[in-house]
Amino acid sequence: MKRRNFLKGVLYGTGATMAIAGGFGTFNKLGSVKAEAIGEDLETTVFSSCEMCRNQCPIAVKVKDGKVVKIDGHPDDAAFGGVICARGNAGPSLLYDPQRIKKPMIRTGERGEGKFKEVSWDEAYTYISDKLYNVKDQYGGEAIALASRKGPHDWFFRSIGKAMGSPNVFSHEATCPMTRSVALDTTFGNEAIAADYANTKYLISIGRNWFEGIHVAQTRAVSKALSNGAKLVVLDPRFSITASKGEWLPIKATTDLAFVMAMANIMIDENLYDKNFISQYTEGFEKWAEEVKDKTPEWAEKETGISKEKIIRITREFAAAKPQAILDFGWRTAYTPNDYQLRRAILIVNMMIGNLEVPGGYYRTKPANFLKDFPDQAVYAKGLGNITQPSFPKASQGRIDGTGVKGTPGQIIPAYDGAVGKIVESILTEEPYPIRAWLVHRFNPYISLTESPRVLEAFKKLDLLVTCDVYMTDTAYFSDVVLPECTYLERSEPIFDMSGLTPKYVIRQAAVPLVYSDTKPYWQIYKELGEKMGIGDYFEFKDMEDYMSQQLRPTGITLDKMKEMGVWTPPGMNAFYVRASDANASLDNVLSNHSKKIEIFSVDVEEATKQGVPKYISHPQPEEGKFRFVQGKVAVHTNAGTANVPILNELMPTNTLWMNPVSCTKLGLKDEDEIVIASGLYEHKGKIKMTEGIRPDTVFCYHGFGRVSPELRRAFGKGINGNHLIPNEIGEVGNTVTSTTFVTVRKA
Ligand code: SF4
User: Fold this and answer.
1) Among 16-25, 215-224, 265-274, the least confident range
2) I need a surface site. Which of 161, 216, 293, 407 has the fewest CB within 10 A?
3) Keyword Kinase: yes or no (predicted)?
4) Is residue 569 a part of any domain in this protein?
5) Where are the alpha helices (DSSP H) in 462-515?
6) What is the pTM of this model?
7) What is this model's ipTM?
8) Is the distance from the beta carbon of residue 50 to the nearest atom of ligand 1 less than 6 Å?
9) CATH number of the domain that residue 689 is part of
């Protein structure tokens, strides 16, 4: 598809200028989706789900003459309303890209030299199997690490590592929302809490950028709230597109917790909080009140750079909208080493207005099994089935990241996610023991982890690095074995549970046959690898049809019906909020912790971090001549994933460094000047974007550029890889910290 035609259906927003002009429009509305005659040809529609980012939006794929010609949003899913974003529209561009990996490959030259030979799948499996068993024999199964983006592939991919006796399986969460997840877990006893943006009346974002870091359902919900008259306040050192839609508060980076604590201080001082909710559902409020006693608006003004009058006014407005108000808990977190305490404080301030399980606040997601304890809803309690596996061997060592160790922050880190940045440390320092083999599935540590040069150093020490991906990513380029996965448009995979205010199941099914015949779906790759390794018992299903049928069995929905519908929600069920009609309803089913209370003070957190309630830590601010370096998302790319996708690369091939004109003038720089950015150990070249949409003490670039794999022929060598500059600092609960680096900038 040519850029001109692509843009007929999709507008995009990449900068503040466009936003000021009212230019956000990253959605494309669906027309008719039934099979229809177009001239002589028949166009059919296959319901599936998008994977251009991790959000898995339900889609309707138009297929003509065996080719995908267009992708729209699923028309019957009310949360998505038949729309998808620009990246979702770019699916065919990825599918038919000749730069995809087409065959399994084994490295023949030095690591990073780019010399590979094409091999058969059997040769690739044999090579991996032999190497993994060598590592296991020499160092133990724990010397094998696995890391991937979180998703339905986990069950298959992780089975390989767990069957080898490794405890070291990781998701990418520590580079993104993990502090939020842990905060939810330690406050409510589970992570399954979501925000009801569509019905809110007052929304405060702390760096959350719904109009560039797009999640179609959530972005639409925020848009709906705004068109219904909700007020939006955005705390961000940068004027993002989201900031352009509300009141922008250009806060000093890393000081958000001061703003949040001052809100609590004001609400207590002025009696603006919901005392009934606090006494009925929470514990530890007195300790929090004590902690914020001196966090006055005057104090917060000095920390944040936001005037005390504004902090007071916004707090009063927020409290006046209770309970239909949301202080947003964020998406990509990891701003500072104590980011986790910021996320907890945000949740506490929300609970101070009693906005749990009511429209316009926060709610526990409602998968089918959750409903069985509610007599009025039990009829909808038809949960998906699990596919059984034999038990995995017990690992002989603990995890390298200390997850689960009592009395340390690791105590509260979920073992499912782990602290992925620790893999690099363990390879390089051999502490607490060495990692010798690393299996990577659709994850690119070189771009996604901080301190990229150190990541490359770590790659070089490994006995085995395997990457399974669609492209020859930067990490794949340094790997020993590269496995070509097919795209989401060519594969079926397990049914997803995407429950929100009602249960919801979504299917992914192949829309077209394999474009490159020697690529495979991940479930087949790991099943075949498992069989080659003699651990096939962990993959007890015939094929994906069999797997999906086993999942659907308890629900009474047939696989054919699911394929036909694409999305299933219980017919006739309305959005379910536990406290909608009874403000004193029990939250025992919503809270999964032992106390059955919302834990403002947490004994576990006190034990793990010595912060039973969140405490403020002041981070240094940039000295004269230095800048705080921050990164963020753009609407037309997905982090490390899409820089080489033809149409998206054409829309935005590179990034620039945003700098305020005042700072540019001081440094003698002008717009588009070539520059060198330096952060102590490392330097990176780039280009200046001079804009008033950023604080003078801060610089910013979009994430995902500066690629080093020459096989990404469109993206190679273009733009700034921000993670090249940021040290691999691991935060309190395992997050890789992204916003505490200072840089200097000079003309190249
Ligand atoms: S947000 Fe966009 S890219 Fe992500 S799954 Fe949805 S449509 Fe696809």
Assistant:
1) 16-25
2) 407
3) no
4) no
5) 474-477
6) 0.94
7) 0.99
8) yes
9) 2.40.40.20
